[in-house]
From TrEMBL:
InterPro entries: CBS_dom, CBS_dom_sf, Mg_transptr_MgtE_intracell_dom, MgtE_N_sf, MgtE_transporter, SLC41_membr_dom, SLC41_membr_dom_sf
Functional summary from the UniProt entry: Acts as a magnesium transporter.
PROSITE patterns (UniProt xref): CBS
The name this protein goes by in its record: Magnesium transporter MgtE
Alphabetized PANTHER family for the sequence: MAGNESIUM TRANSPORTER MGTE (PTHR43773)
One Gene Ontology MF term: metal ion binding
Bilayer-spanning residue ranges: 284-304, 310-337, 358-378, 384-410, 422-447
GO CC aspect terms: plasma membrane
Organism (species): Methylophaga lonarensis MPL
Mode of membrane association: Multi-pass membrane protein
Domain of life: Bacteria
CBS domain: residues covered: 136-199, 200-256
Family listed: Belongs to the SLC41A transporter family.
Amino acid sequence: MSQENYAQISEVIESGDEQALIDLFEEMPAADIAGFIDENFEIYESLALMDKMSPEVQAEVFGYLRPNNQQVLASHMEVGLLAKLFRDMSSDERADVYALLDVKLQDALMRRLAKHDRDDLLRLSSYEEGTVGSVMTSDYAVIPASGTVEHALRRLRQTAPEKETIYQAYVIDNDYRLQGVVSLRDLITAAPHERIEDIMVTDLITLTPDMPQAESARIISRYDLIAIPVVSETGVLVGIVTFDDAMDVVEMEDTETMHKSATVGKIEGGLKDASVGMLYRKRINWLVLLVFANIFSGAGIAYFEDTISAYIALLFFLPLLIASGGNAGAQAATLMVRGIATGDVTRSDWFRMLGKELLVSLGLGLTMAVAIALVGSLRAGPDIMLVVALSMLAIVLVGSLIGVMLPFLLHRLNWDPATASAPLVTTIADATGVLIYFGMATSILGLPNI
């Protein structure tokens, strides 16, 4: 939130003017109010602030709070007040909050909700996490295919306050099967007597509830959609995914990908609220595994002890060469993981991307070989300079190819390509780089490799 809004809320709270605080909450964006509560979270103070909001503002603010804070506040609310809050929240947000509650509170809450709200909440919360069903909403406008424009507009006026979006109205038949969609602009510009079935768009892009949630964001972005309908196998309209929901999915997916690329597991509730124990558990497995993987680098160095003893100057260039290979591999892996995630790169692009990376890495390797050769000429003799330059070319080339191939290999095995993270690629490139460097030195300098 902006510092100006933060200071404004703090000033009004300190003044003790309750009416000014109520008026401020009516005017200020709900996201900024939620940001203030999150940053200054104390259970009873937060509940007292929310008590100064209208039911509509309270529901909107609650939806913007961090999940951990939502869970704590909900557990400290009287069940009747929580039920009232749920009735004012959007369907997808209350389903998310419901999933955070313990079973006892869920049961108590259900007894306070109307049957329609209860059925809707159970349906939305039943979908598996990470699927389209888990992020869709039931707050959308529907109109019958057999009606007229005048009838549709009258219906929208009646239902608009309860819906998340009315810019598109979904046309259904008597069995709630999706027939088409009509934009609000088309309804306004059409003649009142025109029939909906004559002006609706029937060539629709749809999703199913069991599809990965990332697919909804990709399709909405690709086709510049405001929302996309979700239908069952029989064509029944079960929900929609809106643009703002898709943006939340993008943020979650990007965060998860970044965590995987750093060999960190998924952190529930965000970094700020994560416990020390959770952060330890999410990070320790890969770190221990990579420790043992780095033993191969040490074994490679030990294997070439005679070469190193004869030319101590080789050790000066070891960190430069190994780091260069790891960095090049990490760059290539990052590009491939992102390309696969966005659909820009598919399995059929394997040989094309491999060939392209071969040319790019050759260029990179030659440039870096020239740079390291200049350093080598000052630090050691021409023989070692040649070893270092050729090693740089080979190490960068191999490291880059490892960075390209590993995500493709994991993708082909139906594993998450993000697992081909920078630490993993770097570890493999390091071990390979040690063997290339000292193997080349032994060959060129004519020393035994025992």
